[in-house]
């Protein structure tokens, strides 16, 4: 198979979809890998490392899309890329369709095959291609939140762990999944007073067992949220519903119950956000303030640590990329249900129900495209 790795063009997105080591594994199996010139520079992987691994360098994004049977990316195609996507071309990347109608319509129009990292799901549950970036984003959410609590940046002027004779920061985390757990570990390590809200008792029992004493769990409901936001210094939104838009757990009216300088970090912003007032921001212009509450809503947080993120992502995606390259998307998806769940749009049909429901589009069962 011919595989193309374009340079990411989303604002301040420095990751690349494949490391030189990953490219070498695909080349060893007889596949051809084309990498756009300087695609890996932001992650610390210059062109010559890909060439030494057996990949070929192409000068432009247009040539990379034109030649490839499978495009591997990190972030969803943005508007300048829409017309580069070809009919029957396989795109393997993060899409988050349910929060972006123009992207959904563009990919339907392209009649391409869109396999989304974020909905590849193991039979017993678990999202293996979301995990590494969720781990990065969760840790970064605490790191960034701690930074923005500083007074010159708009926060309350509170040190996460305090010092003897002062109280530590109160950190409220909405969701006890991968993002929430990693955020909690970081905040706990900084000696903050941490509360995790979740709706699953088994998950909360697990977190209570593994977390240190400065981490508590509470049932996630509106009553508890309204009570806890009144004294929280840092609130991290870490809610995920696979492939669907995130629910708004914090609504606009709740901001008035928060103290001025409270910091909100919404990691779910690429799925629509679980904080109603959040809208996607960039690393270049990451924050805004509403009702005295600072919002940090960067949609590609792991892009700020691209070396770590690119290696972590390739470690997770490469086994699936090999299956797709060796067998083609249809045979690979027939044989591996995890890949089948990753299919969102196939040749103009929406085959992932949460995406169809988000925009009231016709839904087609994925099996229709896998029968032959």
Automatic annotation (TrEMBL):
Positions annotated to bind substrate: 15, 75
Residue intervals of the Alanine dehydrogenase/pyridine nucleotide transhydrogenase NAD(H)-binding domain: 149-297
Single GO MF annotation: nucleotide binding
TM stretches of this protein: none
Domain Alanine dehydrogenase/pyridine nucleotide transhydrogenase N-terminal: 4-137
GO CC annotations on file: plasma membrane
Keyword hit for NAD: yes
Alphabetically ordered keywords of this record: NAD, Nucleotide-binding, Oxidoreductase
Reaction catalysis annotation: L-alanine + NAD(+) + H2O = pyruvate + NH4(+) + NADH + H(+)
Biological process (GO), any one: L-alanine catabolic process
EC number: 1.4.1.1
Pfam families: AlaDh_PNT_C (PF01262), AlaDh_PNT_N (PF05222)
SUPFAM superfamilies: Formate/glycerate dehydrogenase catalytic domain-like (SSF52283), NAD(P)-binding Rossmann-fold domains (SSF51735)
Catalytic residues as annotated in Swiss-Prot or TrEMBL: 96 (proton donor/acceptor), 270 (proton donor/acceptor)
Residues engaged in binding NAD(+): 134, 198, 203, 220, 239-240, 267-270, 298-301
Top-rank taxon, per record: Bacteria
Family label: Belongs to the AlaDH/PNT family.
Protein name as annotated: Alanine dehydrogenase
């Amino acid at each position: 198979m011919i595989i193309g790795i374009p340079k990411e063009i989303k604002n301040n997105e420095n990751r690349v979809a494949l490391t030189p080591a990953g490219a070498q594994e695909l080349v060893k199996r007889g596949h051809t890998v084309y990498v756009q010139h300087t695609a890996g520079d932001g992650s610390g992987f210059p062109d010559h490392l890909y060439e030494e691994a057996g990949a070929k360098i192409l000068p432009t994004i247009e040539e990379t899309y034109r030649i490839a049977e499978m495009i591997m990316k990190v972030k969803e195609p943005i508007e300048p890329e829409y017309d580069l996507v070809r009919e029957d071309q396989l795109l393997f990347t993060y899409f988050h369709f349910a929060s972006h109608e123009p992207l959904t319509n563009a990919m339907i129009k392209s009649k391409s095959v869109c396999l989304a990292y974020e909905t590849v799901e193991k039979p017993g549950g678990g999202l293996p291609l979301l995990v590494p970036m969720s781990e990065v984003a969760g840790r970064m959410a605490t790191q960034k939140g701690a930074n923005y609590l500083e007074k010159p940046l708009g926060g309350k002027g509170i040190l996460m762990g305090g010092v003897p004779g002062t109280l530590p920061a109160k950190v409220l985390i909405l969701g006890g999944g991968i993002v929430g757990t990693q955020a909690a570990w970081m905040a706990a390590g900084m000696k903050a007073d941490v509360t995790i809200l979740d709706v699953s008792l088994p998950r909360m029992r697990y977190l209570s067992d593994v977390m240190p004493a400065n981490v508590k769990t509470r049932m996630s409901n509106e009553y508890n949220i309204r009570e806890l936001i009144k004294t929280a210094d840092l609130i991290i939104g870490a809610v995920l519903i696979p492939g669907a838009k995130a629910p708004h757990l914090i609504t606009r009216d709740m901001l008035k119950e928060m103290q001025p300088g409270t910091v909100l970090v919404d990691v779910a912003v690429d799925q629509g956000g679980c904080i109603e007032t959040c809208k996607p921001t960039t690393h270049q212009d990451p924050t805004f303030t509403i009702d005295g509450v600072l919002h940090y809503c960067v949609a590609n947080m792991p892009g700020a640590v691209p070396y770590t993120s690119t290696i972590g992502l390739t470690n997770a995606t490469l086994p699936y990329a090999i299956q797709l390259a060796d067998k083609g998307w249809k045979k690979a998806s027939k044989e591996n249900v995890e890949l089948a769940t990753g299919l969102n749009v196939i040749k103009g049909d929406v085959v992932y129900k949460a995406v169809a429901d988000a925009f009231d589009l016709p839904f087609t069962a994925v099996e229709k495209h896998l029968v032959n």
